[in-house]
Design a protein that fits this description.
Layout lengths: L3 H13 L6 H17 L39 E4 L4 E4 L2 H18 L11 H11 L19 E6 L4 H11 L4 H15 L4 E8 L5 E8 L3
Antiparallel strand pairs: 1-2, 3-4, 4-5
Helix pairs in contact: 1-2, 1-6, 2-3, 3-4, 4-5, 5-6
């Protein structure tokens, strides 16, 4: 189940306490906080979770002390220490797509004194679409009328970026940190309602047969 309240709280705290130390760090925070609070815990309508490649982290995501010195074990390259959260955060895979999009978005605006409007925010919105494109979920819990663990379960439509880009722009041009956090969280959560997938597995019959079942929305 997504952690929307946690995401909203983290964004508000990050902004209100002035923890940003530049474009790279801000982009990293937005990418990893989305992955941590939305991407990892998201479920399909019956409770199947996404299959992620970060489950092998050997506890780096829980470690609250940065490894120092040559004699201390170092995490894999895709795990970076984040002083904001005081934890190691996964920055590889699809998280890197989010990071690159947020970085380009902020760099575009930093180069021009005028407000560029909504176009830069199409980058992170499109990256969120890419993040979910083709994402597989565990097929263990069957979708009705299926009655046994399935064979496959994946997203076939990841949503569209236009409305989300407009909403994220509106969020980040708000004047109050609380409003920024609320509007941003509302936008990325509403996007999950657009997502559609197909579960394929056994259906009851004589004999049982395998067939697809359409589903929509992540929770």
């Amino acid at each position: 189940m997504i952690k929307d309240r946690q995401l909203r709280s983290e964004v508000e705290t990050y902004l209100s306490e002035g923890k940003s130390e530049g474009i790279d760090q801000c982009a990293t925070f937005l990418a990893t906080s989305y992955h941590r609070n939305i991407g990892i815990p998201a479920m399909d309508p019956v409770g199947n979770i996404a299959i992620r490649t970060t489950s092998w982290d050997n506890g780096w995501g829980d470690q609250d002390k940065q490894a120092r010195g040559e004699d201390e074990a170092k995490p894999p390259n895709d795990w970076k220490w984040d002083a904001v959260t005081g934890k190691y955060q996964f920055t590889g895979g699809k998280v890197k797509v989010l990071f690159s999009a947020w970085k380009k978005c902020f760099e575009m605006q930093a180069k021009v004194p005028a407000n560029l409007g909504k176009p830069p925010y199409l980058l992170p919105a499109t990256a969120i679409i890419t993040y979910w494109t083709g994402q597989s979920f565990l097929p263990v819990i069957p979708h009705s009328p299926g009655f046994l663990p399935g064979i496959s379960n994946m997203i076939v439509f990841p949503g569209t970026p236009i409305k989300m880009a407009s909403e994220i722009y509106d969020a980040f041009t708000s004047k109050r940190y609380k409003t920024v956090a609320q509007k941003y969280t509302d936008s990325v959560v509403k996007h999950l309602d657009q997502i559609k997938g197909i579960w394929t597995g056994p259906h009851p019959g004589s004999p049982p047969y395998v067939a697809p079942v359409n589903w929509s929305k992540l929770k």
